[in-house]
Specification:
By secondary structure, the protein is an alpha/beta fold. The chain has two domains: 110 residues, Nucleotidyltransferase, domain 5; 84 residues, Nucleotidyltransferase, domain 5, CATH 3.30.420. It has six helices and ten strands; from the N terminus they run E-E-E-H-E-H-E-H-E-E-E-H-E-H-E-H. The strands form two sheets. The protein has a five-stranded mixed beta sheet with strand order 3-2-1-4-5, sandwiched between helices. A five-stranded mixed beta sheet has the order 8-7-6-9-10, with helices on both faces. Helix 1 crosses helix 2 and helix 3 packs across helix 6. 45% of the residues are buried.
Length: 222
């Protein structure tokens, strides 16, 4: 199965084509506040570089958040429109799971995204080279409350843009238990969105196109 993967939850926009879980081609660019004008041309360029036509895409996997309000809607709307126009399945993928999937080595991973206003969107996953297994659901709260909910023993790897503000506090609170992933692993990637979506697609599962909805870290404020 040939999958188009879309990641627009952060300023790092990404689109990728995978054959099952194998990455074929990817485009990633920093596009803060420019996802709308960037996404469609990026997909067109991606297909051209891969030597594929739109009709050769058999499924779409899209990151559904948490993330930026507008950028998430742009990615999801594009995926849903593709699914409707081409009659292919679409699956939504947790942005935090995609972020956890890009972290090495295996073990407990706590992806953390900056939710603004002094809060962090986080979850806890156990990774072992396969799809990350979620062991603690998404929490949006001040960092202290997040850390209190983590396992009291054992090493945990942290990744995500919230570390730009909170890395020192994490390492101070957890000491040697905390490993900070390299900055290259702090952003969710389209390739991991596709790889997480693939097992569901392989089982014949997909989302209702009218219910692929963004998962925001908080309710938007006008």
């Amino acid at each position: 199965m040939r999958i188009l993967a879309i990641e627009t939850s952060t300023s790092l926009g990404g689109v990728a084509i995978l054959e099952r879980e194998r990455l074929v081609r990817i485009i990633e660019e920093e596009v803060p506040r420019r996802h709308l004008e960037w996404l469609a041309p990026a997909i067109q360029r991606l297909l051209g570089e891969a030597g594929l036509s739109p009709s050769e895409i058999e499924a779409v996997a899209v990151s559904v958040g948490p993330g930026g309000f507008t950028s998430l809607r742009i990615g999801i709307a594009t995926a849903v429109a593709w699914g409707r126009a081409r009659g292919v399945p679409v699956v939504g993928v947790s942005t935090l799971a995609a972020l956890a999937a890009g972290v090495a080595p295996d073990g407990y991973v706590c992806p953390m995204l900056d939710a603004r206003r002094g809060e962090v969107a986080a979850a806890l996953f156990l990774t072992n080279g396969a799809e990350p297994k979620q062991v603690l659901g998404q929490i949006v709260a001040p960092l202290d409350q997040i850390l209190e909910k983590l396992p009291p023993e054992g090493p945990i790897t942290f990744a995500g843009d919230a570390l730009a503000m909170y890395e020192r506090e994490v390492t101070s609170r957890l000491g040697e238990r905390a490993t900070i992933a390299p900055r290259a692993q702090w952003a969710p990637r389209a390739a991991h969105v596709g790889r997480i979506g693939w097992p569901r697609l392989a089982r014949g599962e997909h989302d209702d196109l009218y219910h692929v909805l963004p998962v925001y870290a908080r309710v938007p404020v006008a």
